[in-house]
Amino acid sequence: MNLLILESTCDETAAAVVTDSLEVLGSAVASQDELHQRFSGVVPEIAARAHVERFLPVIQLALERSQLTLQDIDAIAVANTPGLAGSLLVGLVAAKTLCVALDVPLLAVNHIHAHIYACRLAAGRDVFPCVGLVVSGGHTTLFDCRSPADFRVLGGTIDDAAGEAFDKVASMLGLPYPGGPAIGKVAENGDPAAYKFPRTFLKDASRLEFSFSGLKTAVRYSVVGPGRADFSNLNLSEQQVADLAASFQEAVVDCLVGKSQQALAQTGAKVLCVGGGVAANRRFRQRLEAELAGQDVELHIAPLRLCTDNAVMGAIAVEQFRAKQFENLDLDAHPGLMR
Fold first, then answer.
1. DSSP one-letter code for 210
2. Which of 65, 177, 239, 307 has the smallest set of CB atoms within 10 Å of its CB?
3. Using CA of residue 27, residue 43, residue 87, residue 120, what is the dihedral sign?
4. What is the mean pLDDT of each run of 10 residues along the chain (339 residues)?
5. Are residues 152 and 108 in the same domain?
6. Is residue 219 part of a domain?
7. Which among 186, 162, 160 has a CA at the least distance from the CA of 173?
8. Is residue 335 part of a domain?
9. Is the residue at 210 inside a domain?
10. CA-based nearest residue to 132, from 289, 290, 298, 251
11. What is the spatial distance between Cα 260 and Cα 195, in angstroms, rounded to a whole number?
């Protein structure tokens, strides 16, 4: 069986061809970073229009790399939740059109669950049950993953996602978009203890929640002081920017690592799987590995190529195909996280 997977939840247009044995035959991703850089964040309308322009070339490229044609495809899978409404709808229309044209079944992909499944793909074996942490530009959520088809939310951010906070702090510091890679690079030359930033909820093991709004505000006050909105002409030295970036990054990492450990303790799980764009952060990966070393916990972090949004991780739909859990063509987009 050959499955064509489409991904357009935010600002990456992606397609992949995967077999029912989870072999990736071909994959393609078109990034929109250059379209959103001037706004220091994703503009939903621009993202949706770009998907319209890019989907056909991306699908064609994925097929060429797989050395297959559309006639070799046995089912279409598409991410329909969560994400930007316009972007999701573009992917849904493309998937439904292909299903009608090829007379093949439709499968729905939960984009957040797929980020965890990327760990399953990289491991080459079953990783469930596990605690799953998805940490990205739009989501910071902990799951009790009892199977590929049974994800239960343990807790998540009550305000900004970690990746969103990275983008906003990068903008404050005059660093380019996307903020995660920019802060990570600058932070290598900074002192993570230079500024004492808050770690909200970290000491409360009963709450598996995150909050980065206060941290973001603390950085703002450190940069411009209370009551000032203008970030121009700050005249921060390179070392100050590096110290601010490193201290901010360390606070985020402390919260992510600490809450992951608390989730493991609460659930009794022996496996931790981590995915999402922020999982590509070098300091975060180092700290996870160091903190869990020597503990009776198996750690899986999605490989760098599968951290940012891609269609390969949508291979979680293979599980649904095996169970014959097909969707009708009235399948709708659900921008909010479906639990």
1. B
2. 239
3. positive
4. 97 97 98 90 95 97 98 98 97 98 98 98 97 96 97 97 96 94 98 98 96 96 80 84 98 98 98 98 98 95 97 98 96 82
5. no
6. yes
7. 186
8. no
9. yes
10. 298
11. 24
Tell whether 46 is covered by a domain. Answer: yes
| Residues in a beta bridge with 155 | 142
Residues shown for the chain: 339
- Distance of CA 169 to CAs 5, 39, 173, 194, 318, Å? 34, 14, 6, 16, 38
CATH code of the domain covering residue 223: 3.30.420.40
Q: Name the 3-class secondary structure at 121.
A: helix
Query: Which residues constitute the domain of residue 254?
Result: 125-306
Distances (CA, A) of 84 to 56, 153, 337: 20, 21, 11
Nearest to 130 by CA among 246, 268, 330: 268
Instruction: Give the C-alpha distances (Å, rounded to integers) separating 162 from 139, 194, 222, 277.
Output: 7, 21, 19, 10
Same domain for 14 and 93?
Answer: yes
Tokens of 310: 């891609």
> Structurally, how many domains does the chain consist of?
2
Amino acid at site 147: S
Please answer whether residues 299 and 145 qualify as being in contact, where contact means their C-beta atoms are separated by less than 8 angstroms. no
